[in-house]
C-alpha cells in the first residue's frame, strides 16, 4: 500500500497546478486571511482546515476571483490569475462546490447538473444559425459528459427528481456532479461532507478519490472531519484567525499542538 510519505513525494514531483503566495484579504478593518502560502501539485488532494471564521472560504474566494486578495499572488498552471473574474477562472478549469448548498430548487437533478456545462456552451446567433455544424455537436458533447458523470456518481435513479426533496447526502453529490461536468482540472470542495452520516461520508470520499484517479483532477478540500482529511488528503494546511498554523502530512499536522488547541480550545465545536 502507498503510504502518505510516498504519495507526498510522488505529487511533489508533479508541476504545481495552483500556487498561492502571501495571500491577504481584508474586509474593512477585519483581516480575514494574511500571509497564506501553499501550492497544490497535479493529482494532489490538499486539505484546508481551521475553526469557524479562520479564513478557509476567504482563501477559496480569493482563488476563484469572488473576493480578489488585497496582497499576494495566485498562479494557476504557472499563469498569474490574481484578481481574474470568477467566470474566467471557471473557464481556466477551476470548479467549486459551496459550503451552503447552491442548488436550484424547483429544478430536477439533471437540470441542475446540466447548468455545470454552461462554460462549454456556445450561445449566440451564429451557432444557432449554424446549428448542425456548431451548436449540435456541442449539445451532443454536453449530454455525453453529463450522462457519464451521472453514471460515475450513481445518480441515475434520481435524475428526474426535484432537488428540493432529496436527502442532503445526495444534494451534495449533485453539487459535485455539477462541478465535474465542467471538466475541471482543479476542484475546490467547500465542506462536501457537512451534514452527512458515516456511510454518506464514505461514498463521498470514494468519489473524490476516484475523480482524482480517473480524471487526474487536483482537489482543494475544505473539511472539518479530520478522519476524512487524514484518510484521503496527501498534504494539508491548517489556519487559525486567518494565519497558517501548520502544514504538511495530515497525520502529523492533526497532532500539532497548535492545531489541537485551535480545534479543542477554539471556536469550532
Ligand atoms: N464578505 C465578508 N464581509 C465581511 N467579513 C467577511 C466576509 N467574508 C468573510 N469575512 C470575515 O472573514 C473571516 C474569515 O471568514 P471565512 O468565512 O473565510 O472563514 P471560514 O474559515 O470559511 O469559516 P467557516 O468554517 O465558518 O465557513 C471571518 O471573520 C468573517 O467574518
From TrEMBL:
Q: Does the keyword Transport apply?
A: yes
Per UniProt, residues of the ABC transporter domain are 18-266
Q: What is this protein called?
A: ABC transporter ATP-binding protein
Recorded GO cellular component terms are:
plasma membrane
InterPro entries (alphabetical): AAA+_ATPase, ABC_AA/LPS_Transport, ABC_transporter-like_ATP-bd, BCA_ABC_TP_C, P-loop_NTPase
Query: In its keyword annotation, does this UniProt entry include Coiled coil?
Result: no
Q: Lineage of the source organism?
A: Bacteria, Pseudomonadati, Pseudomonadota, Alphaproteobacteria, Hyphomicrobiales
Q: Which GO terms describe its molecular function?
A: ATP binding; ATP hydrolysis activity
Q: Which UniProt keywords apply?
A: ATP-binding, Nucleotide-binding, Transport
Q: Which organism is it from?
A: Enterovirga aerilata
Amino acid at each position: 500500500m502507498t503510504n502518505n510519505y510516498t504519495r507526498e513525494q510522488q505529487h511533489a514531483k508533479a508541476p504545481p497546478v495552483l500556487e498561492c503566495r502571501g495571500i491577504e484579504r481584508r474586509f474593512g478593518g477585519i483581516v480575514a486571511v494574511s500571509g497564506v502560502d501553499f501550492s497544490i501539485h497535479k493529482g494532489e488532494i490538499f486539505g484546508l482546515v481551521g475553526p469557524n471564521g479562520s479564513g478557509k472560504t476567504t482563501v477559496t474566494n480569493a482563488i476563484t476571483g469572488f473576493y480578489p486578495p488585497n496582497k499576494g499572488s495566485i498562479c494557476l498552471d504557472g499563469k498569474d490569475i490574481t484578481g481574474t473574474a470568477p467566470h474566467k477562472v471557471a473557464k481556466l478549469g477551476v470548479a467549486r462546490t459551496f459550503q451552503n448548498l447552491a442548488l436550484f430548487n424547483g429544478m430536477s437533478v439533471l437540470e441542475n447538473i446540466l447548468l455545470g456545462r454552461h462554460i462549454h456552451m456556445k450561445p449566440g446567433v451564429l451557432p444557432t444559425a449554424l446549428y448542425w455544424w456548431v451548436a449540435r455537436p456541442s449539445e451532443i458533447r454536453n449530454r455525453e459528459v453529463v450522462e457519464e458523470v451521472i453514471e460515475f456518481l450513481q445518480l441515475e435513479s434520481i435524475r428526474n427528481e426535484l432537488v428540493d426533496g432529496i436527502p442532503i447526502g445526495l444534494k451534495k453529490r449533485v453539487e459535485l456532479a455539477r462541478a465535474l461536468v465542467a471538466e475541471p482540472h482543479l476542484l475546490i470542495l467547500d465542506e462536501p461532507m457537512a451534514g452527512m452520516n458515516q456511510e454518506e461520508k464514505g461514498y463521498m470520499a470514494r468519489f473524490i478519490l476516484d475523480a482524482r484517479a480517473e480524471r487526474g483532477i487536483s482537489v482543494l478540500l475544505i473539511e472539518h472531519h479530520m478522519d476524512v482529511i487524514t484518510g484521503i488528503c496527501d498534504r494539508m494546511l491548517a489556519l487559525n484567525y486567518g494565519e497558517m498554523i501548520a502544514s504538511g502530512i495530515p497525520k502529523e499536522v492533526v497532532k500539532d499542538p497548535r492545531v489541537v488547541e485551535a480545534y479543542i480550545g477554539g471556536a469550532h465545536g
